[in-house]
């Protein structure tokens, strides 16, 4: 099936609706998060940034608040959201961006003191997947209508590794999980009629401080500046028509992938005259009723 992925041009005017908005983001002290923070501040938004360390550049701005936060720690994340609500009284957008690179080796032969194989590291999955899911869960809770007027949006940093083969196994698994979470939550939020949108970005190789820039240059890979995926994240916040989308960026070009490629491909495989698995699940739960229905 031919891909229908026309390039997206993001104009400054497209991001103007973010003026005066309150944005909470994790992993905002470097890379994509820092570029997003700087762009938000330039647009007149208020930012509460959660990270292990403050930005090295020492951003000094009256509309920026830094809070130390380990996204693998629920209490840290809870404190970040409480502080944002305490300062601003509301949260308009949440950017679950904190992430790390590959940590696990599933082919390792390291043994413990008993001579048994050691369990692989879950650090990457804890940060990239569990941390992002918890950020989004808290965001949805704090943006519910009973918590404040209106709704808001969640943006999750996934990766091109979410929809292609990638040998960084734990990283790929986490980024696939990010996309799965966004897909599932979109369905639930719509079903529950909550005025909260959820989307994701899927950057390719980007200047983040994680990648060895010199080595990448030696092997002929051009890293895109972090401002490119940052602008894609801001578009997902600003454009209220976008819900359940996945914006891929590479070498400065931005394309929508979920609605233009992945969903139509799945429909073609399943058959357009047949219900999707999600539709079947909804019908099954409705038929079962009671406690089962209440869980989804």
TrEMBL record:
Q: Does the keyword Oxidoreductase apply?
A: yes
Note whether Oxidoreductase occurs among the keywords.
Answer: yes
Alphabetized UniProt keyword annotations: Oxidoreductase
Q: Which residues form the signal peptide?
A: none
Q: Which GO terms describe its molecular function?
A: oxidoreductase activity
Any Pfam family: adh_short
Q: Which SUPFAM superfamilies match?
A: NAD(P)-binding Rossmann-fold domains (SSF51735)
The family assignment reads:
Belongs to the short-chain dehydrogenases/reductases (SDR) family.
Name of the protein in its database record: Uncharacterized protein
Q: Give the taxonomic lineage as stored in the record.
A: Eukaryota, Fungi, Dikarya, Ascomycota, Pezizomycotina
